[in-house]
Write a sequence for this structure.
């Protein structure tokens, strides 16, 4: 079934009002998008930033009389009506559309991340079969890629690993497939923990090898390797917890950090770790170190 959408180009000051008006006018969904390719990075605590040029998109049932909707919007909006356009959107199988663009990827020498619906390119490699579902983490983002390359470079055989902020479980499962004895996966999103469990089952991970926890449920552990792909702010805030989970002599890998944030995060962890030089992928960075205190 086709849908109709209206796109309005506005400013952050008016985006929320237009969103509310579209919903009141009967929109099935409203989306805010970047109108001029302006990146938004990690916000300050309590902030929800929008783009300077924000595009508000309302999706309506195809039977909606859009002339009546636009007239109502013009009357209800507190400012002059912004530039807009109305267009038909053909219904598509969006899940299948996404699946066609996710292909097997190699990280380092041994590790492959493969969509669960495609054949593996290297049967002799370490093949992680992934269905991200609702949780973040397919390996396509530079922060995940940086962590996967790092894990592939390590001697993980028989080690205990903590994956703090596990998302889809991609790093936790990669560590187990690379030879880890046990992984503790932590996330504050219950859906992420369920996605991690499901992806572990898909990769035939023995249940006793993977333990998943919400942050306030994590048991005492001294990990040989700790990896945390989150964001710079939470990494600084969580540094005492991440440090406590890592044993003396244990290895640390941190990502989700913008290039310009690397120095701040690294400085925080030097209180406990001997940190290496950051590794960069475009605007993102990975920090590594060994716990010495």
């Amino acid at each position: 079934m086709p849908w109709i959408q209206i796109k309005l180009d506005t400013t952050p000051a008016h985006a929320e009002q237009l969103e509310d008006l579209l919903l009141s006018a009967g929109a099935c969904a409203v989306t805010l998008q970047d109108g001029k390719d302006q990146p938004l990075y990690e916000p300050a605590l309590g902030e929800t930033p929008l783009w300077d040029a924000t595009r508000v998109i309302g999706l309506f049932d195809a039977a909606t009389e859009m002339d009546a909707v636009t007239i109502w919007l013009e009357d209800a909006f507190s400012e002059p009506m912004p530039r807009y356009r109305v267009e038909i959107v053909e219904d598509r199988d969006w899940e299948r559309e996404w699946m066609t663009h996710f292909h097997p990827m190699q990280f380092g020498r041994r590790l492959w991340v493969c969509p669960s619906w495609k054949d593996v390119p290297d049967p002799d490699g370490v093949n992680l079969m992934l269905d991200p579902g609702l949780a973040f983490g397919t390996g396509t983002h530079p922060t995940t890629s940086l962590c996967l390359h790092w894990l592939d470079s390590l001697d993980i055989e028989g080690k205990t690993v903590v994956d703090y902020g596990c998302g889809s479980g991609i790093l936790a499962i990669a560590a187990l497939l690379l030879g880890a004895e046990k992984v503790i996966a932590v996330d504050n999103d219950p859906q992420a923990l369920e996605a991690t469990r499901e992806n572990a089952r898909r990769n035939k991970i023995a249940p006793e090898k993977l333990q998943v926890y919400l942050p306030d449920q994590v048991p005492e552990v001294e990990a040989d390797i700790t990896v945390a792909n989150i964001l710079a702010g939470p990494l600084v805030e969580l540094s005492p917890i991440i440090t406590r989970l890592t044993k003396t002599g244990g290895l640390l890998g941190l990502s989700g950090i913008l290039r310009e944030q690397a120095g701040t995060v690294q400085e925080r962890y030097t209180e406990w770790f001997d940190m290496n030089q950051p590794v960069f992928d475009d605007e993102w960075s990975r920090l590594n170190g060994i716990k010495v205190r």
Observations:
- The chain has two domains: 3-91, 139-291.
